C-alpha cells in the first residue's frame, strides 16, 4: 500500500515554484476583484466571501499538487563525494595555521 505513495513525485523545481506562486496570486486577486464587484452590485457581502473562497479552492487545486508543468526544469546536482574514513583525514580548516593575535 505504501509503495503507491512512494511512486508519486512530490518535488517541484524553482521555476515551477515561481509559476505556482504567480498562478496562486493571480487567481486570488482576480477572484477578490470579481467577488468585490459582484457583492457591491447585488449588495450582499456574503457573495464576495463565497467567490473569494471559491477562488482560493481553485488556486489550491491548481498549485498545491506537483503537477508535471511545475517539474519541467530539474536541477542537475553534483555527485556526492566519497566519504574517507580514518584518523589521518583532517578538515580543511584544521590544515591552516592558527594565528595568534597580540
UniProtKB/TrEMBL annotation:
Membrane topology: Multi-pass membrane protein
Biological process terms in GO annotation: protein targeting to ER; signal peptide processing
Gene Ontology CC entries for this record: signal peptidase complex
Highest taxon above the source species: Eukaryota
Localisation per UniProt entry: Endoplasmic reticulum membrane
UniProt entry keywords in alphabetical sequence: Endoplasmic reticulum, Membrane, Transmembrane, Transmembrane helix
Primary location: endoplasmic reticulum
A Pfam family recorded for this sequence: SPC12
Segments passing through the bilayer: 23-41, 47-67
Task performed by this protein: Component of the signal peptidase complex (SPC) which catalyzes the cleavage of N-terminal signal sequences from nascent proteins as they are translocated into the lumen of the endoplasmic reticulum. Dispensable for SPC enzymatic activity.
PANTHER family: MICROSOMAL SIGNAL PEPTIDASE 12 KDA SUBUNIT (PTHR13202), SIGNAL PEPTIDASE COMPLEX SUBUNIT 1 (PTHR13202:SF0)
Family, as annotated: Belongs to the SPCS1 family.
Assembly notes: Component of the signal peptidase complex paralog A (SPC-A) composed of a catalytic subunit SEC11A and three accessory subunits SPCS1, SPCS2 and SPCS3. Component of the signal peptidase complex paralog C (SPC-C) composed of a catalytic subunit SEC11C and three accessory subunits SPCS1, SPCS2 and SPCS3. Within the complex, interacts with SPCS2 and SPCS3. The complex induces a local thinning of the ER membrane which is used to measure the length of the signal peptide (SP) h-region of protein substrates. This ensures the selectivity of the complex towards h-regions shorter than 18-20 amino acids.
Stated name of the protein: Signal peptidase complex subunit 1
Organism: Coregonus suidteri
Organism taxonomic ancestry: Eukaryota, Metazoa, Chordata, Craniata, Vertebrata
